[in-house]
Design brief:
By secondary structure, the chain is an alpha+beta fold. It has one domain (22-154). The protein contains 4 helices and 6 strands; from the N terminus they run H-E-E-E-H-E-E-H-E-H. It has helices at 2-16, 83-94, 126-132, 151-154; strands at 37-38, 59-64, 69-77, 107-112, 117-123, 139-145. Strands 1, 2, 3, 4, 5 and 6 form a 6-stranded antiparallel β-sheet that branches. The chain is globular.
Amino acid sequence: MKPLACLIVALLLSRSAPVPTPPQPTVVLPSPDILRCAAPACQQLWPAPTVLGAIYPHQVAIDFDRSGCVYGLTAYYDASVPFEMLKSALDASYKQSAVSNLTTPVFAVWRVESLKFAIQLSIATKKDQKTLHEETGTKQLVYIAFGGRQACATH
């Protein structure tokens, strides 16, 4: 009888307490402040201090001119990171800049006119695997200053 009473109490307790859903990990995006910035002043790649359990890109490529001025960067996120998670992180800051006619389930663009740069989010395909040496499914996030390399000359 005692084991049965313990089982009933355990069942009642397990049903009364809601199971908390684990928090969604934070996606860390590169800071757009690095665009049109000349080295060595451009040291801050991330907009905030590191966060435990956050999702960072596994690789970042930076495009800069001969004087060290950054005009673009590409961040590569692991294939396991959902596209929608990255899109939501970008929308949190730039939703009003989303280009709706260029948004699909595997591709999205934001034109941030006020800061004079654009963002492109896409998923690497088999073709990209050969040319970019990135695994199929890798998420590619590109920030580019309006004017590309010429943006540094006008800043």
